[in-house]
Design goal:
heterodimer; A: about 110 residues; mainly beta; Immunoglobulin-like; six-stranded mixed sheet; five-stranded antiparallel sheet; about 0% helix; B: about 110 residues; seven-stranded mixed sheet; four-stranded antiparallel sheet; 11 strands; globular
Chain lengths: ~110, ~110
């Protein structure tokens, strides 16, 4: 069936470097996408969202890119900090409910 | 701090016990959700309430019984659970009406079934 997935289950970066977390989706009906950050012992925290009529959206230190042609979503984190260490989930909303991807663990080395 | 409050934070119960998980939000959101999350896995949708009415039940066993007493509260009643039901149970809310709105999560109840 159609699903949301991630290319890399783990990502390790040096503090200060930029991070890129990727997500592939296959449900062409999805028109809204969200990135969440989940720290240990906490619930998912909203980072940024993007609608299908956009291909790029920027927030504070984060940018989400959407390529509908290849059904690909990415999250870019600029100047990665130790506090960015967490599991990152992409999520798609093809209709009534939201489906999460498998998640990527980001580890930031000091 | 999250604007969705879940209690208790931890719960240990036997398979014959009856307990309830509680969730509260005061953001005026009209859609509320229950998710189950196993270790190292993404959250899985269990139930969706829209304007206090159950709109989605993702084939969840009847030992889980949701309740939405009003627009700010969401409960999950538990009875005769199995060890495989041990997980983090997350509550979320969104503005409602339009599915293209972000969901805001609480920090969950970590449930252990003995």
């Amino acid at each position: 069936g159609e699903s949301v997935g991630l290319h890399l289950p783990t990502l390790s970066v040096q503090e200060g470097d930029n991070s890129i977390i990727n997500c592939a989706y296959s449900n062409s009906a999805s028109d809204y996408f969200i990135w969440y950050k989940q720290e240990s012992g906490k619930g998912p925290q909203f980072i940024i969202d993007i609608r299908s009529n956009m291909d790029k959206r920027q927030g504070q230190r984060v940018t989400v890119l959407l390529n509908k042609t290849v059904k690909h979503l990415s999250l870019q984190i600029a100047a990665t900090q130790p506090g960015d260490s967490a599991v990152y989930f992409c999520a798609e909303i093809p209709g009534r409910d939201m489906r999460f991807g498998a998640g990527t663990r980001l580890t930031v080395k000091p | 701090d999250t604007e969705v409050t879940q209690t208790p934070k931890h719960l240990v119960m036997g398979m014959t016990n009856k307990k309830s998980l509680k969730c509260e939000q005061h953001m005026g959101h009209r859609a509320m959700y229950w998710y189950k999350q196993k270790a190292k896995k993404p959250p899985e949708l269990m139930f969706v309430y829209s304007y206090e009415k159950l709109s989605i039940n993702e084939s969840v066993p009847s030992r889980f019984s949701p309740e939405c007493p009003n627009s700010s509260l969401l409960n999950l009643h538990l009875h005769a659970l199995q060890p495989e039901d041990s997980a983090l149970y997350l509550c979320a809310s969104s503005r409602g009406g339009d599915s293209n709105q972000p969901q805001h999560f609480g920090d969950g109840t970590r449930l252990s079934i003995l």
